[in-house]
Amino acid sequence: MGLLSGAARCLVRGADRVSRWTSKRGPRSFYKGRGTKGTGVRARDGKFVLVQEMVPELVVPELAGFRLKPYVNYRAPAGSDTPLTAEQLFREAAAPAVEKDVKDGTFDPAQLEKYGFDPAQDGRLFQLHPKNFPR
Fold first, then answer.
1. Separation between Cα atoms, residue 27 and residue 32, nearest integer Å
2. How far apart are CA 119 and CA 129, in angstroms?
3. 37 contacts 55 by C-beta, under 8 angstroms
């Protein structure tokens, strides 16, 4: 939207319609929050019941002796790595194991899950996704 059309919209509709939507402008029950996930549910009597499974658990690795800082400057140059494609992922992760099994004579087409194949991709091309990495 251009500057002139935005200004005209403010004059025609009134400046109140384009102001920020806050909890003061909404109904009594409106609470904007900060975009976090809820950690429980409201019971019938209006009380908040905390559900332990909904509470986020932060897993922080031990960083003693770690040299890097958590801040990355916005002027830092972009990385030179190209995005990983499914074909590159297959060649790096599954192809060596497939070649080894073919040479040894132990390759079984019915056991493709061993190489990261997802049976849910029935009828589609074989794609190796990062979540299916062979471990």
1. 11
2. 12
3. no
Question: In this structure, how many other beta carbons lie within 10 angstroms of the beta carbon of residue 98?
Answer: 14
Beta-carbon neighbour count of residue 86 at 10 Å?
Answer: 13
Instruction: Locate 95 and state its tokens.
Output: 């192809």
Q: Which residues have CB under 8 Å from 98's CB, separation 6+? A: 107, 115
Q: What is the DSSP letter of 78?
A: P
What Rg, from alpha-carbon coordinates, does the chain have?
27
Would you tell me how many other CB atoms lie within 10 Å of the CB of residue 52?
A: 8
pLDDT, tens digit, for every residue of 63-98?
A: 888 888 878 888 988 888 888 887 888 888 888 988
Q: Write the pLDDT tens digit of every residue in 19-46.
A: 777 777 778 777 777 777 888 999 999 8
